């Protein structure tokens, strides 16, 4: 076997799927999806075809033309990869697989009515990055295998569905289309409806996404609707927060070329969504924590929008090259933010990122492999080593190239790069070769090997230069000397300024300083989770147990890993934390059912390591 990806069973000697036709029956009482997956290959093929699965029960594999069964076998379970499904083909171009998800599918979170905003209907949604599409349907779950797809979702009539694909129609079920996922009488039940979607551009499997629930929407631009649970206050606040989306799309097109995905819709998910945003094409998934009331949440939208060019159009070949997705997108996001919100806001964004990068060096001090841009993740779960390094070190590398050749030349290079590699999956060498071919002599000016293969932060990386950034950092330094910022110094601060200030405070401060800061500025009550969580980390490190009630409340009301990871880590890491470890374990036990499976795994790993 010749693997193409350390996180997939896909064999490089096998043909790659070009199209997938999916038929899904959603059964909310059992938290399962019964599915028929029709895979199409480019040409007739004879031999073994190996696919990725995880927690799927495969009932049969069929030649869709003759309807005769095809021999298949499932491998033993690999704790990271799942199980390989190997099918023996004999001159086939298509294969039909009948399977069913497990209630514990790592991609899918099923929410009972009490876990939703309206408390009346259930909700289900997916998160497939990095390697979780295989827990919904069998596939070559690697970015190398870009596929087009069509999907029919059979759901309860009172719910509606969205996908990261073009919506074709909502209609009554037809008895001829069940494909064996259930009896025709069940498929065509009076209480069922079919929502049909199609994705006509080839995407990596991790961009497959759907959500089913009681959904409403608001129009916010010519290409953009905001979707969320049908709660007017959620929809209205989201529409206000993201009112400037079309302006950002126009800036993106000016910088990076045409927007190739037609629609740029936004779905605000329940609080358990594990990421800030997920760049699913045509339908970005967002955490409600980005709705802050000051339009700063639009920066997360800018990041996911930037992925429309870097990540979705040009994709990393596998997770060893994740920086090609995230470093480029972080650079592109900051260019969009600078154009729309100004240089000072972009500098704050860079400064927050810089602090995050410095903190990741501390996190990975015992395993510096994961401070490289080009990593070796064989035998490693990508969720366990997910970090700011590919984002922020990748950004720093591209910013360094921009400083070397000048912004106009770098802008021309970026446009050419995107036009050359669009709808392809590439690796670091392909990028470096393209860079050297188009910027002759760059390897003599910048140590490209040090940047991509070296550990740590290269000496020619840099902090942002701006007055507001310098002022905030110097105020944070004065806190070490016992001086709190005056109210006139912070009068115009919003969430990002406070976030940067808190990130630059010393890690060990006196409990009295923490309580004094909160008494003056009420940071523990902030509606901006970045600010609240930044403050609570400080409170935990100072052993301010008065704040543990707020810590518990926060860990129980959101499932975004950006907040769970630092709070659980702060509680359990280090010596003499017995009381905190008991507290963290209790809170996790009580909260974990409300977390997405990916977040459950990450929090559990932190507790297993330290508690």
From TrEMBL:
Pfam families: Leuk-A4-hydro_C, Peptidase_M1, Peptidase_M1_N. One of its GO terms (molecular function) is zinc ion binding. Zn(2+) binds at residues 303, 307, 326. Its cofactor is Zn(2+). GO terms for biological process: proteolysis. Keywords: Cytoplasm, Hydrolase, Metal-binding, Metalloprotease, Protease, Zinc. A peptide binds at residues 127-129, 274-279, 560-562. It catalyses: an epoxide + H2O = an ethanediol. The keyword Coiled coil does not apply. GO terms for cellular component: cytosol. The active site is at 304 (proton acceptor), 391 (proton donor). Binds 1 zinc ion per subunit. Residues 467-607 form the Peptidase M1 leukotriene A4 hydrolase/aminopeptidase C-terminal domain. The keyword Electron transport does not apply. Its EC number is 3.3.2.10. It is found in: Cytoplasm. Aminopeptidase that preferentially cleaves di- and tripeptides. Also has low epoxide hydrolase activity (in vitro). Can hydrolyze the epoxide leukotriene LTA(4) but it forms preferentially 5,6-dihydroxy-7,9,11,14-eicosatetraenoic acid rather than the cytokine leukotriene B(4) as the product compared to the homologous mammalian enzyme (in vitro). Belongs to the peptidase M1 family. This is Leucine aminopeptidase. It comes from Anisodus acutangulus.
């Amino acid at each position: 076997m010749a693997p193409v990806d350390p996180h997939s069973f896909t064999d490089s000697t096998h043909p790659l799927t070009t199209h997938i036709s999916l038929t899904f029956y959603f059964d909310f009482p059992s938290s399962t999806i019964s599915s028929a997956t029709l895979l199409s290959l480019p040409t007739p093929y004879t031999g073994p075809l190996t696919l990725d699965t995880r927690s799927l029960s495969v009932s049969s594999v069929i030649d869709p033309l003759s309807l005769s069964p095809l021999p298949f076998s499932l491998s033993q379970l690999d704790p990271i990869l799942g199980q390989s499904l190997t099918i023996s083909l004999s001159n086939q171009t298509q294969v039909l697989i009948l399977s069913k998800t497990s209630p514990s599918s790592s991609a899918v979170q099923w929410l009972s009515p009490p876990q939703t905003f309206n408390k009346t209907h259930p909700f289900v949604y997916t998160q497939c990055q990095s390697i979780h599409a295989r827990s919904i349907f069998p596939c070559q779950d690697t970015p190398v295998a870009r596929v087009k797809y069509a999907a029919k979702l059979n759901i309860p009539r009172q719910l509606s569905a969205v996908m990261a694909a073009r919506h074709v129609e909502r209609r009554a079920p037809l008895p001829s289309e069940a494909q064996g996922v259930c009896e025709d009488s069940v498929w065509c039940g009076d209480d069922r409806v079919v929502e049909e979607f199609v994705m006509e551009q080839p995407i990596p499997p991790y961009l497959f996404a759907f959500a089913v629930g009681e959904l409403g929407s608001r129009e916010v631009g010519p290409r953009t609707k905001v979707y969320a649970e049908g709660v007017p206050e959620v929809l209205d606040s989201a529409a206000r927060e993201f009112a400037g989306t079309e302006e950002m799309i126009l800036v993106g097109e000016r910088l990076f070329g045409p927007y190739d995905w037609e629609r740029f819709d936004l779905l605000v998910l329940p609080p358990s969504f594990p990421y800030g945003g997920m760049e699913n094409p045509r339908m970005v998934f967002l955490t409600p924590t980005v709705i802050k009331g000051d339009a700063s949440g639009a920066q997360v939208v800018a990041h996911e929008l930037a992925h429309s060019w870097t990540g979705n159009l040009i994709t990393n070949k596998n997770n060893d090259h994740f920086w090609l997705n995230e470093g480029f997108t972080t650079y592109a996001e900051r260019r969009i933010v600078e154009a729309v919100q100004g240089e000072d806001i972009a500098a704050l964004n860079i400064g927050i990122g810089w602090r995050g990068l410095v903190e990741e060096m501390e996190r990975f001090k015992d395993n510096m492999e994961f401070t490289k841009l080009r990593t070796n993740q064989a035998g490693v779960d990508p969720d366990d080593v997910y970090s700011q390094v590919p984002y922020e070190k990748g950004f720093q590398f591209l910013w360094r190239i921009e400083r070397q050749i000048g912004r106009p030349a770098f802008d021309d290079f970026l446009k050419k790069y995107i036009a050359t590699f669009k709808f392809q999956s590439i690796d670091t060498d392909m990028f470096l070769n393209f860079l050297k071919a188009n910027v002759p002599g760059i390897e003599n000016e910048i140590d490209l090997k040090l940047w991509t293969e070296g550990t740590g932060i290269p000496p020619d990386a840099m902090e942002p230069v701006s007055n507001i950034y310098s002022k905030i950092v110097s105020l944070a330094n004065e806190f070490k000397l016992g001086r709190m910022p005056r109210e006139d110094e912070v009068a115009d601060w919003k969430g990002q300024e406070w976030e940067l200030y808190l990130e630059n405070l010393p890690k060990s401060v006196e409990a009295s300083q923490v309580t004094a800061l909160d008494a003056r500025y009420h940071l523990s009550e902030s509606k901006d989770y970045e600010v609240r969580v930044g403050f609570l980390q400080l409170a935990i490190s100072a052993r301010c147990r008065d704040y543990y009630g707020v810590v518990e409340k926060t860990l129980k009301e959101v499932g975004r890993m950006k907040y769970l990871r630092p709070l659980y880590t702060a509680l359990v890491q280090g010596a003499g934390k017995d009381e905190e470890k008991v507290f963290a374990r209790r809170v996790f036990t009580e909260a974990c059912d409300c977390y997405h499976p990916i977040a459950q795994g990450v929090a559990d790993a932190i507790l297993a390591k330290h508690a």
